[in-house]
Specification:
With 269 residues, this protein is of the alpha/beta class. It has one domain (2-267): Luciferase-like domain (TIM Barrel, Alpha-Beta Barrel). The chain is 32% helix and 20% strand. The strands form three sheets. Strands 8-7-4-3-2-1-12-10 form an eight-stranded parallel β-sheet. The protein has a two-stranded antiparallel ribbon with strand order 5-6. Helix 2 links the parallel strand 2 (41-44) and strand 3. Helix 3 crosses helix 5. It is globular.
């Protein structure tokens, strides 16, 4: 069984001038210790305008700091909120993080169902599914093609050579947050890894997460200890990727399991 950490950077009130900083500093202390204890990965969420619940709006920057304090532990973003980002920015930042970490990055993509997070960035909830689909389509192309052009409904990219390229080949494993049956089916059809909640129990997750022909892997819930299923990550060619050094992503063969809990549960905080 593999164990990973999950952070949202929750900052309970009452706040002091150091409250936010202290939570981040604690994470930076905890994660190297967790690596020493054999934890296989750490995931950071991305949320905006969610006081107390999540002060974690720039997870790639935090993971960049983590990458310089660790050597083996996998570094996952669960998830990049696709409707408030441009895929070029995400591709470049994740590739840079992959280089800094010597090839340890996992990239999750999600939509968010909260207009409160979307509207300040000019995104509409009605467009999020289409934006997510285009993001998932173009991101591996940016990483694997020498030059990229893209003409989507939401994202249009003229011919450009996008640099840097990630260290992992063909690219970092891609995951998707699966909050609905439709998204779960799309995720399976794209051969991306699936990040599921445990609502309805393992049987419900299995029903939601295994489209015809898709291979499944029993894995652990991201942060709260329930069960979930994550399918093998997309390698940019429509096949399940086996990337060296897989830990909390999956290079995993069928049947491997792990649980992903908050750091406080495992490091005594």
């Amino acid at each position: 069984m593999r164990l990973s950490l999950f952070y949202q950077i929750q900052v309970p009130k009452p706040w002091t001038a150091e409250s936010e900083a202290q939570r981040i500093y604690e994470a930076l202390e905890q994660i190297p210790f967790a690596e020493q204890q054999g934890f296989s990965g750490v995931w950071f969420s991305e949320h905006h305008f969610r006081p107390v619940w999540s002060h974690n709006s720039a997870p790639d920057l935090t993971l960049a700091a983590v990458s310089q304090r660790t050597e083996r532990i996998r570094l996952g973003i669960g998830v990049v909120l696709a409707p408030i980002h441009h895929p070029l920015h995400v591709a470049q930042r994740m590739a840079t993080l992959d280089i800094l970490s010597h090839g340890r990055v996992d990239v999750g993509l999600g939509r968010t169902g909260y207009p409160y997070q979307l509207t300040p960035y000019g995104s509409d909830l009605r467009d999020t599914r289409g934006m997510w689909h285009e993001f998932a389509d173009v991101l591996p192309r940016i990483w694997t093609q020498e030059e990229i052009t893209y003409d989507g409904e939401y994202f249009k990219i003229p011919r450009r050579e996008v640099l840097p390229k990630p260290l992992q080949k063909p690219h970092p494993p891609l995951w998707s947050a699966c909050g609905s049956d439709e998204t779960a089916m799309q995720t399976g059809n794209l051969a991306m890894g699936g990040l599921f909640g445990s609502e309805g129990g393992p049987d419900r997750v299995t029903q939601r997460g295994v489209p015809p022909g898709a291979r499944s892997v029993d894995r652990g819930r991201g942060g709260f200890g329930g069960e979930t299923i994550l399918k093998e990550p997309f390698d940019g060619r429509g096949h399940a990727a086996e990337v060296g050094g897989r830990t909390d992503d999956e290079r995993v063969s069928s049947g491997d399991t792990f649980h992903q809990h908050s750091a406080a549960q495992h490091i005594g905080r």
